[in-house]
Amino acid sequence: MRYNVAQLLKEGVGAFREREVSGDLYDIDENNPGPTHCEGQILLIRTPRGILAKGKVHLKLVQACRRCLELATHEVTIEVEEEFIPSVDVETGASLPITDEDEPELVINEYHILDLQEVLRQYAVVAVTSPSLCKPDCKGLCPHCGANLNYETCNCDTRRIDPRLAVLAKLLES
Ligand SMILES: [Zn+2]
Ligand SMILES: [Zn+2]
């Protein structure tokens, strides 16, 4: 997931390359320590200041179900769009100004290598926090005893209701 962009940096704004993305991510979160393999396609486009990386990357993330808390693996597509900036002028070799506002993972190094790995890891960290279900019809946990209702039925009275509503329930029953 490292690309030598020296030639592309010498070309005019709008020049581009299409590249395969294939590699492993690490340390996304506790459920995804890695290697987490990712595959995709990226377009590297010359911009006035640097190179825009734009594309889609597919990976499998382990996420806890928001109803039953069981871990399940999901296919996820990450849409990446980030501008990388060079740290060295490709023609003269002179250092270019990098400011505090420039994210270090978006800096193309002095060997003109654009490295997608940390950027993709950060996108994956965001993706892994989105709520997910282990399956669309997950029955979740019993709110009274905590039994996983996908595997067992418990003996809790699921009709048990808030005592403040009990009066109303009686009225509805009669
Ligand atoms: Zn579930
Ligand atoms: Zn129960």
Task: Give a nutshell description of this structure.
This protein has 174 residues and is α+β, with helices and mostly antiparallel strands. The protein has helices at 6-10, 117-128, 163-173; strands at residues 2-4, 16-25, 36-46, 51-64, 71-86, 107-108, 113-115. The chain has two domains: 2-135, no CATH class; 139-174, no CATH class.
Shape call: elongated
Cα gyration radius (Å): 25 Å
Number of domains: 2
Lateral strand order in the biggest sheet: 2-3-4-5-6
Average residue pLDDT: 92
Unreliable sequence segments: none
The major sheet is characterized as: 5 strands, mixed
| N-C termini distance | 68 Å
The ordered string of helix (H) and strand (E) elements is: EHEEEEEEHH
User: Approximately how much helix is present in the residues?
Assistant: 10-25%
The set of bound ligands, ions and cofactors reads:
zinc ion
What can you tell me about this protein's structure?
The radius of gyration is 25 Å and the shape is elongated. The protein folds into 2 domains: 2-135, no CATH class; 139-174, no CATH class. It has helices at 6-10, 117-128, 163-173, and strands spanning 2-4, 16-25, 36-46, 51-64, 71-86, 107-108, 113-115. The chain has a 5-stranded mixed β-sheet. Helices cover 16% and strands 34% of the residues. β4 and β5 form a beta hairpin. The protein has 174 residues and is α+β, with helices and mostly antiparallel strands. The protein is built from 3 helices and 7 strands. The chain starts with a strand and ends with a helix. The structure holds zinc ion (2 copies). One zinc ion binds at residues 65, 67-68, 70, 133-134, 138.
